[in-house]
Write a structure and sequence with these properties.
Length: about 110
């Protein structure tokens, strides 16, 4: 319904406004996409990519490099508020964790 659509839009913008930490930069996004070969971190399809919160905002995830991965629109919308262990394949999940571990080492992704 139209009312439901407006409610979802309002909730989306409210979550964005309520975020306390928003340190994710354009450069970090470019490095993130490069690590995943400009493909979805979940299914590997290339094309239009969204910034997906690996741990959803509703589950306490933050908007920072250690919680953002590229996702195709299908995976992003399908995952929605699910925990990544309930959505991602084991291989995709482990690759994303490997990426987050590399973020802990300065300049590890800039090679």
């Amino acid at each position: 319904t139209e009312k439901g659509k407006l409610t979802r839009i309002f909730d989306y913008h409210k979550r964005r406004h309520d975020l306390k930490v928003n340190t994710f930069t354009r450069q970090e996004w470019e490095l993130c996409k490069k690590y995943f070969n400009n493909s979805c971190a979940y299914c590997g399809i290339s094309g239009k990519l969204h910034q997906d919160h690996f741990i959803p905002l509703k589950l306490g995830g933050e908007y920072k490099s250690s919680n953002i991965v590229p996702a195709c629109p299908f995976c992003n919308f399908s995952k929605n508020k699910k925990h990544p262990k309930d959505f991602a394949t084991k291989a995709a999940y482990l690759n994303i964790i490997k990426y987050f571990d590399k973020l802990k080492t300065p300049h590890a992704l800039e090679e």
